[in-house]
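Explain this fold:

***
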Amino acid sequence: MISIPRVSDIFLISIVIGVAISYSYLYLFHIIFAIIIIFSFRRFRKNDFKFDLNIFTTNYVYFLPLFFSWYLLSVLWSINKAYSFQYLFYIFCGIGIILYIVININTEKKIKRSIKVLGGIFSIQIIFSTLESFTSFRLPISPFSDIVNFFGREPSLQPTLDSFLIPSLIQSPTGFQWNPNDLAIAMIMLTPFFLFLKKNLIKWVAITLISLIIIMTSSRSVLLSMGFLFIIYLIFYKKQIMSVFLVFSFVTIFFSQIENFKESENSQIADIANTFSAISALLSNDLLVGQSLSIRQELALNGINALYETYGFGVGGGGSIAVQERMGGVDGRITSMHNFWLEVMVDSGIIFALIFYCWYLMLFRDLFKLGRYSKNYFFKYLGRSISLSLIVFIPASISASSVIYFLPMWLLFGLAITTLEIHNKINLEEL
């Protein structure tokens, strides 16, 4: 019989791997998750469908049934029932990830083992992504792979693409995440876990590689979030104000030379420079019609108008996609919100969105306190790492078309809650 820790290892690995082991839209994760549900149901039935809610020492888990129930209820007024049920499936899987982690990874020994397992599989992703960035290596399931069609997926390198886009795309890593933006988000969420390591060699090698991977994805929001991450890290976690001044000085010098970088013969350097130029335009509110950032503004405006039409109740899970489709798609093709926080509000309504935002901020608050005041070094490390990851996820998540089914996000939520749960249990046992 497979022990719980072993099952947990496999489950966590399947979450990280995600689309990398899949056929069409069926992931290895789905198969393992389905098996876990079956065995959990059998165990639940043996206990006469009784579950002890007193095992939880925090209130964060109790929000999860509300999360699912509200999206289920919103089907009644949803503008697209098919999308709503699709979103329900996504949320069901996400909540399932959280609950499994909280219920089964519930001791200091188990979470230490889980962090090691996750560190190993994420390290493999870093290696693969680095190879994708600087060599011709591609994972078979990569959208830029020559054999991706054998896995029920369409390749991204279509003959109809503009020729100037192809060199940049070929060098864009995707790792286990299918597309560069999602990989960039996963990498920046991972960064704090290396920043707070004591082992300097591992720390700086990993951070260097992660930074290069993010740069090679050319994800504007994540590149901006990377700077935000280090500023927050230096000010609030290291209290090094002078270092922040030096960072700003470096950035100023970089931007003064950005026009020269834009003329570089290296397509990737030129693309990065154009990315930073677009960010600068965003900050100065000087955007050209047709730029991706301008497109995001139009997507946001369409969503806000739809929210207004529903008197703040929202258009139902996935309804934001239907809203963009109703408008013919922004730029004739884009239908996802490209803003997770606004997507939640447009889909679920203002009241629920505010509840979710509060839940998220309270989770961050408690983890930040844990990282600052805990006497246990391991939980201090987790508190700092997870809280900073939650902070940087806020701006970084805007990079992707949608993160509602971004498995690393749900994994982070699960680790966040179970860290607080285990720490509370240890404190109660010591009393």
